[in-house]
Amino acid sequence: MTNRKNILITGGTGFIGGHLSRYLVDQGYAVTVLTRAEAIHQTGTEHLAFVAALADLQPRHWYGVINLAGEPLNKTRWSQAQKAQIINSRVAVTQDLTAWLRGLSTPPEVSISGSAVGWYGHWDDECLDEDSPSRAGFSNALCAAWETAAMAQADLARRLCIVRLGIVLGNDGGSLPAMLLPAKLGLGGSMGNGRQWWSWIHLEDVVRSIKMLLENPQATGVFNLTAPHPVTQIEFARTLGRQLHRPALLPLPGFMAKLMLGEFAEEVLLKGQRVRPKKLLDNGFTFNHPDLPTALRHLL
Ligand SMILES: NC(=O)c1ccc[n+]([C@@H]2O[C@H](COP(=O)([O-])OP(=O)(O)OC[C@H]3O[C@@H](n4cnc5c(N)ncnc54)[C@H](OP(=O)(O)O)[C@@H]3O)[C@@H](O)[C@H]2O)c1
User: Fold this and answer.
1) DSSP bridge pairs for 224
2) Which of 86, 125, 228, 249 is the most buried (most CB within 10 A)?
3) CA-proximal residue: ligand 1, atom 20 (nearest)
4) What is the pLDDT of residue 1?
């Protein structure tokens, strides 16, 4: 028997979820990761367990549920079928969680459900916060479907938080490792015109802010999980180049990026949005890595 609070995490074998699970165990929680059957060979530890199905969960009080699972965006080129899979994988897991929550005898304190700053769609230099409107496009459709599915949990937990994640920077997953080799070779320059905004966040601040959402009884609704100082793509490339003592020289024309990566390049790399974490700041969250030079220095 343990007096640790129980947290259920979907996507807990992934880049963010893996770090989050270990961090929450270190912070005194007992974490259970819901993972698809083929990944169940993962070995647990005393306070970190893996289950293949919600039906396998032992009856107990769940303090929090964190939902991050979904087909990776860059797994393969985006056909219509792949785009449907990217959306459906997230919506299906969220709906399964909703059905499971409905059957619990006591509601969790909080359900935290994933989304991304892609919800806002593509913008130029406008500063966006949680009150800003969205613009149509695939990223918006994906995040809107994911968030709408999560809204069904509003009455099934005491609080529902939706986290709109920016580009998460870490050493062992996400976008940064893929950017390092070209940058080290001095090849990381502008993508397209380079003026698109990239709203990034250090992985450490992601896990710390999710812990704050778990524990702050006032925290509810949508939260942008982005650093307070987003940058344009060319500023990102130059900052990374400076950290690596390499010039950010070679531009990648937009048409080349689209040729190489298809619609993913158009949606995620060549266009962006300048997002501010207004609600995290209003709730008193302090960032360990508020600006990009600090974050990259720490990571590299
Ligand atoms: N990384 C970022 O920069 C970033 C930015 C914005 C939003 N996000 C979102 O945040 C979430 C976590 O990101 P991440 O980088 O940690 O992702 P990740 O490393 O790709 O992990 C995602 C997890 O989802 C599960 N999964 C994969 N395909 C699935 C499918 N078809 N159906 C059901 N589950 C599936 C996997 O768990 P099992 O194999 O154990 O089942 C995997 O561990 C993702 O939904 C992502 O879209 C990430």
Assistant:
1) 164
2) 86
3) 72
4) 52
Q: What's this model's pTM, rounded to 2 decimal places? A: 0.96
Q: What residue type is assigned to position 50 of the chain?
A: F
Looking at ligand 1, which residue's alpha carbon is closest to its atom 31?
71
| CA-closest candidate to residue 269, choices 281, 261, 277 | 261
The residue whose CB lies within 8 Å of the most ligand 1 atoms, and thus the one to mutate among 15, 34, 113, is 15
Task: Evaluate whether 12 touches 68 at the Cβ level (below 8 Å).
Answer: yes
**Considering only CA atoms, which of 272, 286, 186, 283 is closest in space to residue 231?**
272
Give residue-wise pLDDT tens across range 115-170: 999 999 999 999 999 999 999 999 999 999 999 999 999 999 999 999 999 999 99
- Say how many Å lie between the CA of residue 249 and the centre of ligand 1: 32
Tallying the residues shown for the chain, one arrives at: 300
| Residue that the structure tokens 């997953």 belong to | 173
CB atoms within 10 A of CB 188: 25
Angle, vertex CA 8, rays to CA 131 and CA 161, nearest 5: 10
Domains of the chain, with CATH numbers? 6-299 (3.40.50.720)
Dihedral (CA of 286, 291, 294, 300) sign = positive
